Structures are given as C-alpha cells and as structure tokens.
C-alpha cells in the first residue's frame, strides 16, 4: 500500500485492527476484560499496557504503524487460516469473506469508508473477524434454533402456516434442508442457518416478494437476502439431474388402469408441451421475446409423466419462437441431454408440433381441445375426433402440471426483476422443487386437489344415446402408428355402441 493512502484509510484500518486485537498469534481469544465500548457502536479499543505514558501519534506515524500491523496480521492470518481450514472447513476463507461482506452496514456507519481492501487485507480481516466472532459472540437470534422469530413462528406453528409461507409441508422442508446440509451444497453462516436461507428463497419465489419485504420479514440486510437467494437458487438447480429423470419404460399406471387409453396408448411414456413464462428484458431484446399475445415471455419446453413429474425442462427461448422449432433445437443438440426415447415408445404432443418418430401429434383440422367437445355434440363423430379427444385428455396432464407449478410458485406468473439468466434458473429450480415435493409429500395439498383428475374424462356413451355416429373405421385405417391407434380405438368404440 502506498503511503499517500495511509491517512485516507485510517478509519477502516482502525476498525479492523480493533477486531484483530482479540485474536493473538496462536489463535486464542482475549477475555474481554481489556476492552471498552466506544460511542455505542460495538467498536472496541484495546487497552495497551503502559499506554498512558505515550503521547498521541502523528497522523503519519499512525498510518505507518497501521501498515506494519496489517502486514503482521496478514502473515498471522494466513497461518491461522491454514490451521482453521483443517477443522472440517468450518472456518474457510470463503466463509470469512462472506462474513466481512455482511459487515457492510457497520462499515458504512464509519466516517471513512472509501477504502478498497486488497486481497491480503481482506483475508486478514475476514479470518480474524470470523474467528473472533465464532469464539466470543453468541449466534444471532440465539433464542431460536432456526434463526429469526419469523422462522420459529412458522416451523413451530400449525402445518398450514408452513404450507402457506414455504409452499411445502414441514417434513418436506426439513428433509430438503437435510439434503442441502449433508451434501455441503449450503452451509450455516454465523447469522443465517440453512433453514432460514431456504425459507428466504421459498418466500421470494412462492409469493413473488420484493427484497425489501423479505428484509423486514427476516431482519437481514438487502445484500444478505440477495446473496442467500442466489446461493439457494444455485444449490436447487444443481439437483436437476437427480430430480428430472427419464420416465420408466413400462406402461404408466394412469394408462394401464383406463379402458379409454389402454391398450391404445400403452407405449406412451409422457407428454411434451410449451409453457410461456413472463420475462423481464432490456429494450434491445424485447421484440424477439414478444409472443403471439403481445406479452414478453420465455418459451419453456417441458416434458412430464402422467404422475405430474417433470422429465425435462428447457427454458430461455424467445417467446416468439415456434414450439416445434424449440423441440427440434433440443433434439439436434446432444448437450441438452434430452432423454433417449426407447424403441417403440413415444411422447404425445399438441398441434404446435409435427408428427414425428417418437412424438405423436393429433390430427390437424379436426376438433381437438376438450372444450370443443362440450355442449350438444359431446361425442366424437369420426375416428379422427375420437383419437384427438383421447389424445387431448392425456395431454391435459401437462397442463395440470403447469397449473400446480405456477400455483405453488407465483413468481412464474410475472416478470421478475432479475437478470435473464436468473429468470431461466428460477424456472429450473421451481421444477426441481415440484418433483421433490411430489416424491416426498404424498399428502401435499396442491397435488391432492388434482390427483385422479389430471386426465379428463369423456362422458359415458350410455348418457349420449341421441348422438349419431357419422363414419366407420374402414376409410381411416393406415399403416402409421397414429392411424393404427386410431383404427383400434374406433373399432372398439363402434363395438361398444353396437352392444348398447
């Protein structure tokens, strides 16, 4: 450090020095008897033996002494840090630096805060402060095992409170914290345990809350809230490979148990569709992301099972991009890791996609969506309409998955004020949490509301005896898989009608 910066840096150096005064060369802490409180600011002053005989130092002499002291502290801190890190990484340098970051409010209250510490000083100050803090201070919110009083209120309160605030049941929340802790994906800090870090993240995506609201709720600075949000987002996203898994190759139970779908769709393993999520973008990118409805959005390709779990998620495409183009881009790019489709198996897709090998689309130009079969003409009038209606009933599964996902995490219904890469990651993290809750929370209230109703039912034929069937199957048989399915389905439908 150059000498001309000595006086300018005096305020912050003194603050660091006073902190470091409590840690001697071998890492032991002082008793606290040799300090006094100054001006109500948690600033401490070391009482140096024999100091009463000294006159006041000049500003230059003080600056020189500070520089010398900092060099000594840096050397000691490096040795101390090496020893500390052997203790199960409990006092790592990265943690020390994070703690120093958390001290910004205290530093801002000082008269001189323009100093930018170099790496050596940062390591020295952070290691010393963290060590002193962990030895001599009580944890923040020591009366609560979870952190803030808000956390205790939720986790010690009724089950409905946890569902409302954290968007999952208590045991699911605690199990997830256990995974993040055991795998070292998140770590407790001096003031914020993993439970509180996860709660901050879930509050934001589960209620679309602003940083300022979360600051008040959890009693942390905006920087602390932002840092933990990003840390949890990264941790949850890293679980995607584990919780976004290829579907089983066996016939799904939801198809096997229904005579409307089995054996016709016995080789169907899932559903693919697009989900549009509102996006916040700079002006230069807005034209590309404006979808057909004129809304800025990201086009998210999704695949799910009939058990409402996501198989694959590909967010980030422009809202203006055609669904078939996004799917083709995924299939052409091995790095996207789209699950290999077993031979003879397929996904069902809607009219926005092409009828390709491994993907069965409905017949174009024929009634398809469920609402088109309501009212006077509920029953299909020809083989293509019958195929399309049952195809649409199965495809409804992914719409239910989207509805549950967005109901649980309303941040997906708006354009959050984050960088676009964060917006993309939020979609992935939300889907990971969706699957995790589906597996862990068998009694989850959102899934309970849709279980058994994900696949829309066609009214029983016995209730529609006045409907006239307009076609027979013999003109609609073909050699393609789709036509084979349609033919078998229509033949059985006719036989049921004849028996009636």
Automatic annotation (TrEMBL):
All copies of the DDE Tnp4 domain together span 272-435
Q: Which domain of life is it from?
A: Eukaryota
Mind telling me which GO cellular component terms the entry cites? nucleus
**In which compartments does the protein localize?**
Nucleus
Annotated signal sequence range: 1-25
Per the entry, which co-factors are needed?
A: a divalent metal cation
Give the region (Disordered) as residue ranges: 32-61
Q: Could you cite one Gene Ontology molecular function of this protein? A: hydrolase activity
Positions of the DUF8040 domain:
143-237
Keyword field contains Nucleus: yes
Q: Which InterPro entries match?
A: DUF8040, HARBI1-like, HARBI1_dom
Q: Which keywords appear in this protein's UniProt record, sorted alphabetically? A: Hydrolase, Metal-binding, Nuclease, Nucleus, Signal
State the PANTHER family in the record. Answer: OS08G0106900 PROTEIN, PTHR22930
Similarity comment: family membership: Belongs to the HARBI1 family.
Q: Would you tell me the protein name for this molecule?
A: Uncharacterized protein LOC105107474 isoform X1
What is the organism field in this record? Populus euphratica (Euphrates poplar)
Name the gene: LOC105107474
């Amino acid at each position: 450090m150059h000498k001309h910066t000595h006086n300018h840096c005096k305020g912050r150096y003194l603050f660091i020095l006073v902190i470091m005064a409590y840690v001697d060369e071998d890492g032991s802490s002082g008793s606290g008897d040799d300090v006094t409180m100054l001006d109500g600011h948690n600033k401490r002053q070391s009482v140096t033996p024999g100091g009463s005989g000294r006159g006041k130092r000049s500003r230059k002499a003080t600056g020189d002494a500070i520089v010398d002291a900092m060099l000594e502290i840096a050397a000691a801190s490096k040795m101390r840090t090496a020893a500390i890190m052997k203790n199960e990484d409990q006092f790592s340098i990265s943690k020390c630096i994070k703690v120093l970051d958390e001290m910004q409010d205290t530093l801002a209250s000082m008269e001189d805060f323009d100093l930018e510490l170099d790496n050596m000083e940062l390591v020295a100050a952070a290691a010393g402060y963290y060590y002193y803090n962990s030895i001599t201070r009580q944890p923040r919110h020591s009366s609560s095992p979870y952190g803030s009083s808000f956390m205790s209120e939720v986790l010690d309160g009724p089950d409905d409170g946890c569902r409302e605030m954290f968007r999952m049941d208590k045991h699911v929340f605690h199990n997830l914290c256990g995974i993040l802790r055991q795998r070292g994906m998140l770590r407790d800090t001096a003031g914020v345990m993993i439970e509180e870090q996860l709660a901050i993240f879930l509050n934001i995506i589960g209620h679309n809350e602003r940083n300022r609201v979360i600051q008040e709720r959890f009693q942390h600075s905006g920087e602390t809230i932002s840092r933990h949000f990003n840390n949890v987002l990264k941790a949850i996203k890293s679980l995607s490979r584990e919780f976004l898994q290829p579907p089983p190759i066996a016939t799904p139970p939801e198809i096997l148990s229904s005579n409307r779908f089995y054996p016709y769709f016995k080789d169907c393993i899932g559903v693919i569709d697009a989900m549009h999520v509102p996006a916040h973008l700079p002006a230069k990118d807005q034209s590309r992301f404006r979808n057909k409805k004129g809304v800025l959005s990201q086009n998210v390709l999704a695949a799910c099972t009939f058990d409402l779990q996501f198989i694959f998620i590909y967010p980030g495409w422009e809202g203006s991009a055609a669904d078939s183009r996004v799917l083709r881009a995924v299939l052409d790019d091995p790095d996207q890791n789209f699950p290999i489709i077993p031979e003879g198996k397929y996904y069902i897709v809607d009219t926005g996609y092409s009828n390709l090998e491994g993907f069965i689309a409905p017949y174009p130009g024929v009634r398809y969506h469920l609402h088109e079969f309501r009212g006077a003409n509920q029953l299909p009038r020809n083989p293509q309409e019958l195929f399309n209606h049952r195809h649409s009933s199965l495809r409804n599964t992914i719409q239910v998955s989207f509805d549950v996902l967005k109901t649980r995490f309303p941040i997906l219904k708006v354009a959050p004020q984050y960088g676009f890469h964060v917006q993309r990651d939020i979609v992935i993290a939300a889907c990971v949490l969706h699957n995790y809750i589906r597996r862990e929370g068998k009694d989850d209230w959102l899934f309970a509301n849709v279980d058994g109703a994900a696949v829309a039912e066609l009214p029983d034929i016995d209730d529609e005896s006045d409907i006239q069937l307009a076609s027979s199957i013999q003109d609609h048989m073909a050699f393609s898989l789709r036509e084979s399915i349609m033919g078998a389905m229509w033949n059985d439908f006719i036989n049921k009608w004849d028996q009636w």
